[in-house]
Structures are given as C-alpha cells and as structure tokens.
C-alpha cells in the first residue's frame, strides 16, 4: 500500500486531469470514480484530494464552479482548462513512452513476438 | 452533522489561516464531501456515530489537510510581494537618497502610507496590507511626542488622554490582525525594533526637536540599506509557501538587520541595548502567536468575524 502511494504521488495531477477531462466532476465523485475505474487500486486519503485540486486550480489547470444539483444541493465541479488540456496531452505522451519502455524491459519476449 | 464532524471542520478552519471567502469555500467543499460520504455509509447500514468516525478517519488529520490547503494558497504573486515590500522600499529610498530632509517627500510618504492602509483595511484586508498597516502606526507614536513639550499641566492631561487612546488603537489593530493570522501581526510589527534600534544607535542629542540633523545625515545611507533589507525579506516572505519558512525568514532577517544596526561603526548602540532589542524583536514576533492562542482558548475570536 505505501508503495502504491509513492507511485501515485508523482502522477496525481495526470490522474485528476484525465478524469476531469472526460467530464466535470466534484471531489467526492472523483474519489469514487478513481476507485471504480482502477478497481480499487488508486485510493486517495480523502482529505488530501482537495489540496491537490486547489493547487491545480491555482496553477490554472482546472477551474472550480459551484453548481446546484437537481436535489438542490450544491457541489463544486471542476472543469479542465485549455492549459490543463495541453499539459494532459504532454503527460499522456510521457506515460505512453514510459509504458512502452517498461514493457520492453518487463516482457522482452512478448514484445519481440508482437513485432 | 455530528459533533465529531463539526469539531473536525472547526479544526480545519482554525488551521487554515486564509482570507474569509477562501476559508468559507474550502469548508463548504469539505462539508459537501462529508454529506456524500455520510449518506453512503448510512445506506451501508452504519450508525450515525460509526459513520462520522469512519468519515473523519478517511479524511485524515484536520491539521494536515488544513496545512496542505494553506500551502496551496499561501504563496503570494510577485505583484503582492512588491506591493507588500513597498513601504520598506519607500522608507529605504527616503534615507538612502537623503530625501528624508524634504518635508515634501515626508508628506507624500505619510499620505501614501495612510491611504494604502485605509484602502486595504476597507477592501477586504488583503495580505499586502499588513506592512503598510505597521508603518501607519508610526504617526500615532510620533504624534504623541510633541505632547511632551506642551506647557506644564496641559502636557500631563494630554498624556493621560493620549496614551490610553493610542494604546487602545494599536491594541485593537493588533487583535484584528491576529484574527486573520498571527503571522501577519508579526509582519506588521516587523520594522519596530529596527526603528527603535536606529533611534538609539544615532543617539539623538538633546531633546527631540533639537537633535543633530547632521548626525542623522551620516547614518542615512546605512539606515536606508537596513530598510531595503527588510523589503527583500518581506518579498521573500510572500513568495514562500511553507509557513515555517515564512517564520524563519522573518526572525532571521529581523535579527540580522538588528545586528547590522548594532555593528554600524559610528553607532552608539551598546551591547546591553542590542540584547534587549533582540528580546523585544523576538517578543514582537512571537507574542501575537501567544495572544492568538489565549484568545482562541477563551473563544473570543470568531473565525468568521474577520
């Protein structure tokens, strides 16, 4: 578990940008969605999500906007910005390169067979 | 919401030390998160108390959450840093360029300092306000000095009326500042020991109106330099994120500047005066923190009242 957290540390922004890029989301929704899609692999300490969201908002990567739900409750939805989008494209590229390189090391035979 | 969760949110709020609107937004956001989480846990069959305890556990330490959120908002922009260091810069230039002798420049400085302090005070008390506020307290002290030269009898009456009034004004401004964050109160009081240090180092001859202008003239560039050093420290203070680093930069730069005052070759600041000033400086830095703690214990500070 601590190793997972270490691995996640440097990639929090990419994960959050990825989710928010697909649709605007609020904090709780992000945590649920992240857990669901990763089948429980990515688990945030809930309180630490908000500092990350606020930091990204200050950096201009996302923009928070309060919206009223059909139930009358208010939630702060985060939307991705143009700057966030271009950072996400860049990060995705870096990840693909990284994964490809990792695969070459971890599964050399299968990669070569695939070729 | 249960008492556990209300305490949790209060704990976060007490440690956020941000401006009121940001604080309110952060707390609202955490509150909505808690609402969603509680609802889910109630549906899963947990009791109110169990749900609240699990919720707090999942959120993590209130102090840590507050500190992390504080650090995302605590770094001022370069514009704010410049604006906050401006009063020190102006005083630095006033002495470094020997403009302090011109009544015109002094009047402009006075009007500017007071205008900025009043403007900031009535416009949401932004963070850059506090250094201006510190300098705006100087006229309160300076205005009291001529009272010493009034005719006998009148002088006492004026002092009896003026001193409590001035102290009340200074104290209420300090308390208002502490409500925002004790660190801003320290920032506000930052130049006071340096000013006192120079006052003693220059060793004014005779009574206040007759002191040697020439003597002060010799000191002026060095005095200017010390204020420029304070300006640089304030700019750094605003650009730093971590709270402990902000405290370190204030304490270290204050003590170094005071050392600079004490070791000026022509200065008259004795070692004992220097040590006393060091203690005054540390006292001024840290007493707002103690006052804040004391007031909070008595629950006098309404966090929403700032």
Secondary structure tally, helices of chain B: 14
What is the radius of gyration of chain A computed over CA atoms, rounded to a whole number of angstroms? Answer: 17 Å
What proportion strand of chain A?
5-15%
Strand segment tally of chain B: 0
CATH architecture of chain A: Orthogonal Bundle
What attributes characterize this protein structure?
heterodimer; A: 115 residues; alpha+beta; Arc Repressor Mutant, subunit A; two-stranded antiparallel ribbon; 2 strands; B: 306 residues; mainly alpha; 2 domains; elongated
Description of the molecule:
The complex is a heterodimer of chains A (115) and B (306). Chain A has 115 residues and is α+β, with helices and mostly antiparallel strands. Chain A has a single domain, classed as Winged helix-like DNA-binding domain superfamily/Winged helix DNA-binding domain (Arc Repressor Mutant, subunit A, Orthogonal Bundle). Chain A has 6 helices and 2 strands. Chain A has a two-stranded antiparallel ribbon. In chain A, helix 2 crosses helix 5 and helix 5 (82-106) crosses helix 6 (108-114). Chain B is an all-alpha fold. Helices cover 77% and strands 0% of the residues of chain B. Chain B has 14 helices and no strands. In chain B, helix 5 (78-96) runs antiparallel to helix 6, helix 9 (154-180) packs across helix 10 (182-189) and helix 11 (192-202) packs parallel to helix 13 (243-262). The longest helix of chain B is centred in the middle third of the chain and has 27 residues, at 154-180. Classes of the chains: A alpha+beta (115), B mainly alpha (306). Chains A and B meet through helix 4 and strand 2 of A and helix 2 and helix 4 of B.
SSE layout:
The complex is a heterodimer of chains A (115) and B (306).
Chain A: H1 2-9, H2 12-22, H3 27-37, H4 46-58, E1 62-68, E2 74-80, H5 82-106, H6 108-114
Helix pairs in contact in A: 2-5, 5-6
Chain B: H1 3-16, H2 20-43, H3 48-59, H4 62-73, H5 78-96, H6 103-122, H7 129-136, H8 138-144, H9 154-180, H10 182-189, H11 192-202, H12 213-239, H13 243-262, H14 271-297
Helix pairs in contact in B: 1-2, 1-4, 2-3, 5-6, 5-7, 5-12, 6-7, 7-10, 9-10, 9-14, 10-14, 11-13, 11-14, 12-13, 13-14
